[in-house]
Amino acid sequence: MASKTGVDMKAGTLSILGCGWLGMAVADRFLREGWQVNGSTTTQEKLSTLTTKGVNAFLVEMNPHLQGSALDRFFHADVLLVSVPPRRKAGLTDLYNTQIESLSIALTKTNITRIIFISSTSIYDDLNREVFEEDANPSSYLYRAEQCLFSVENYKTTVLRFAGLIGGDRHPGRFLSGKQNVDGAEMPVNMIHQQDCVNIIMAIVQQDLFGDVFNACADLHPTKKEFYEASSRALNVAPPTFSNNVHTPFKIVNADKLKEKLQYQFTYPDPMSMI
Predict the structure, then answer these.
(1) pLDDT mean over 55-80
(2) Burial level of 6, CB count in 10 A (0-12/13-18/19+)?
(3) Is the pLDDT of residue 7 over 60?
(4) First-to-last CA distance in the chain?
């Protein structure tokens, strides 16, 4: 659980740009805490699903520029959570940067002053060591997206660089099941459970800790072979087999900064307990 020290923000309105796997879990938590929640989706069919859960549903798209029928109401909020995962296929990362740039311009015309931007630890190269917030690759499209939001005046952005996301209906046993000759058997994995993601977002808001960058990753780092074989056993599915390549580059994501500043202890510090 996160510490309740610091400045507690009273329940207000949270807008979630991207009410998907993570965004919906965050919405559920904030609704339980008495917040009003605006949630966006890109599909007409999901509007009723969000409404049924108590979310004020909005159809919002970035194609690549921000568009929607009621953007003024969607952005009328105390905090904005940007949870729009990029598509990493060739050529689409530039599209993502254009989307974020369009968002940053639109935000200058809103009353929002606090933003949480969901980034990823894929911003780090495999440096064969621990990586810290200052190790981000400045040529990464994610780094450019982060800097785009940091550069606009009049609001504070906190960036959360999440490790591999699991939990809920996202079980790692399905990720590599049955695959052959997978590289990296001995490389350490970097994972975070959905519940910790939600708890960390809530702690950022409760403690009003905006204007910073944090890695968010479980404390322990079992090997890829250990983790995915155990995950396959948990689902009773075919495990992957691994190659003999023992020289696969790796990184170990360090989240000490987040734990210190938030006084946060992970609910799932060991990825093996997430399975």
Answers:
(1) 94
(2) middle
(3) no
(4) 20
Q: How many residues does the chain have?
A: 275
**Per-residue pLDDT for 47 more than 70?**
yes
pLDDT digits (tens, 9 = 90+) for 110-151: 989 999 999 999 999 999 999 999 999 999 999 999 999 998
- Cα 127 to Cα 133: distance, rounded to the nearest angstrom: 13
Which residue ranges form the domains of the chain, and what is each CATH number? 13-168+191-219+251-274 (3.40.50.720)
For tokens 């069919």, the residue is 45
Among 215, 158, 192, smallest CA distance to 273 is for 192
**What are the C-alpha distances in Å from 64 to residues 67, 93, 100, 269?**
9, 12, 9, 37
pLDDT for 6 beyond 50: no
User: Which candidate, 136, 147, 162, 174, places its Cα nearest to that of 83?
Assistant: 162
Which pTM does this prediction carry? 0.94
pLDDT of res. 92 = 74
Which residues, including other chains, have CB under 8 Å from residue 34's CB and lie 6 or more apart? Answer: 11
